[in-house]
């Protein structure tokens, strides 16, 4: 069993991380045969995210062994103390030791350059030491999973500094990032700068990126959470939004943590769904919405409906339109269910390909499927879809437009140039332009193949010799 290390950065990353550890504990607790922790066994699935520590001897115990004290495989980073302090005062505090918290007091001021160039260099050695300490406590390190925002200074700046540091220290270990992109009406005026500067680092140093935007999270919560009030004061129910992202990570890793007829190692996701190294942005959706208030009556029971819903924009964590714009490069599905069979999966994938999904000509069988027999805690099943689709270029185009509105006037640029060169803005914008063009080229190439194929089909049809039918 391989292990994963969670690196949660900034206020947003720390809040999602806090929700993740709570849900991970609940998920594993629901599978244990005893409610008495002293009678529970530390097994391979628990080792994916937790260490079992005998505090009397200050040693980590291998599995299987009786649970003593669970410690999270995590590094928690924030340049403001608020959220990390609240974690230390919460029931989760015993999951962490003091060395796992890397913090400052003044914050990054919503400035990517301060987070990346100033705090990154200031804390480089401390970050390196703690990352190395966590890695050395793993028997078989499978991945680093980063969670951070893209609009603020610590999340975007220091988060992407840590990503490049991981690439430097552990280039062969899979790096999966879940970045939270800001809303279009975000109250941080410099968020377009931060997002574009951070996207450049994600493109260069991540193996796989699962982008999430706040607007989509709000849409999902408003649509699916019956307890959400429809007024401005309750527009952002953060706990439910954090639950969606936390469950995304749990479902993503489920097939490598638990048994199933078709297990998927995390390294297989970029291997199968990322044919080009820069185009590693995957659009995710989850069925059903992972809220504790979801009732059995609201969960579709027809297997075909489950798969159709998986492609619905109502459940996507990014505001894009794959059914209307662009083309699929590859697609993955990870199911968690005791009742769904491989035959059900194959039949429904064939139906989706035939009626609802258009793939590039050179990768029409570009699927990766995982099936885990352990359903999510409190739900009969879940289906996580990961789509490498060219429609994501629209997200990048909108981001570039917001960046350009500010940068055309050089607004707020002087806050950044104390720590970086003006050329860094130009390089980040050029990276975004290139990324958009790469996705456009995929679409154009596929259109040419379609045209050529249609011409060849027409020629072959007209050249068929007519048979004279004798009466």
Notes on the protein architecture:
The protein has 471 residues and is an alpha/beta fold. It has two domains: 3-225 and 238-394, Tubulin/FtsZ, GTPase domain (Rossmann fold), CATH 3.40.50; 395-448, Helix Hairpins, CATH 1.10.287. The protein has 14 helices and 16 strands. The protein has helices at residues 10-29, 44-47, 82-88, 112-122, 124-136, 153-169, 191-205, 214-224, 238-257, 268-273, 303-310, 342-355, 392-407, 422-462; strands spanning 3-9, 41-42, 50-54, 59-61, 65-66, 69-72, 74-78, 101-103, 141-149, 174-181, 208-209, 212-213, 283-287, 328-337, 367-372, 381-389. The strands form four sheets. Strands 1, 7, 8, 9, 10, 11 and 12 form a seven-stranded parallel sheet that branches. Helix 12 links the parallel strand 14 (328-337) and strand 15 (367-372). Helix 1 crosses helix 6 and helix 13 runs antiparallel to helix 14. It comes from Rotaria sordida. One of its GO terms (molecular function) is GTP binding. One of its GO terms (cellular component) is microtubule. This is Tubulin epsilon chain. It holds the Pfam family Tubulin_C.
């Amino acid at each position: 069993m391989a292990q994963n290390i969670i690196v949660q950065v900034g206020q947003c990353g720390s809040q999602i991380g806090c929700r993740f550890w709570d849900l991970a504990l609940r998920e594993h607790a629901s599978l244990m045969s005893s409610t008495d922790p002293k009678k529970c066994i530390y097994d391979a699935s628990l080792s994916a995210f937790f260490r079992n520590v005998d505090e009397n001897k200050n040693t980590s115990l291998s599995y299987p062994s009786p649970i003593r004290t669970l410690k999270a495989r995590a590094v928690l980073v924030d340049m403001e103390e608020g959220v990390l302090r609240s974690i230390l005062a919460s029931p989760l505090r015993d999951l962490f030791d003091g060395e796992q918290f890397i913090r400052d007091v003044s914050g990054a001021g919503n400035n990517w350059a301060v987070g990346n160039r100033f705090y990154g260099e200031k804390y480089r050695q401390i970050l390196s030491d703690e990352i190395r300490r966590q890695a050395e406590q793993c028997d078989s390190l499978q991945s680093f999973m980063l969670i951070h925002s893209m609009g603020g200074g610590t999340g975007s700046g220091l988060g992407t500094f840590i990503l490049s540091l991981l690439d430097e220290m552990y280039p062969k270990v899979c790096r999966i990032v879940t970045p939270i992109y800001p809303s279009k009406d975000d109250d941080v005026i410099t968020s377009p700068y931060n997002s574009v500067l951070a996207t450049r680092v994600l493109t260069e140093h991540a193996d796989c990126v699962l982008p999430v935007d706040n607007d989509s999270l709000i849409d999902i919560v408003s649509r699916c959470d019956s307890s959400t009030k429809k007024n401005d004061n309750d527009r952002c129910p953060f706990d439910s939004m954090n639950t969606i992202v936390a469950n995304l990570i749990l479902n993503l890793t489920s097939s490598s943590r638990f048994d199933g007829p078709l297990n998927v190692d995390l390294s297989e996701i970029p291997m199968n769904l990322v044919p080009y190294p820069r185009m590693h942005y995957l659009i995710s959706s989850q069925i059903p919405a992972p809220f504790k208030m979801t009732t059995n009556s609201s969960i579709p029971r027809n297997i075909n409906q489950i798969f159709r819903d998986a492609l619905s924009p109502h459940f996507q964590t990014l505001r894009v339109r794959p059914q209307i714009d662009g083309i699929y490069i590859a697609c993955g599905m990870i199911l968690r269910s005791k009742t769904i069979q491989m035959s059900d999966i194959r039949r429904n994938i064939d139906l989706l390909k035939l009626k609802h999904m258009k793939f590039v000509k050179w990768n029409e069988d570009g699927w990766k499927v995982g099936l885990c027999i352990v359903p999510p805690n409190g739900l009969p099943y879940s289906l996580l879809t990961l789509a490498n689709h060219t429609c994501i270029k629209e997200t990048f185009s909108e981001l570039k437009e917001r960046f350009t509105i500010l940068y055309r006037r050089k607004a707020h640029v002087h806050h950044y140039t104390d720590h970086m060169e003006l050329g860094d803005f130009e390089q980040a914008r050029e990276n975004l332009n290139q990324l958009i063009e790469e996705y456009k080229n995929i679409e154009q190439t596929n259109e040419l193949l379609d045209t050529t194929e249609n011409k060849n089909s027409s020629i072959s049809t007209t050249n068929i010799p007519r048979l004279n039918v004798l009466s």
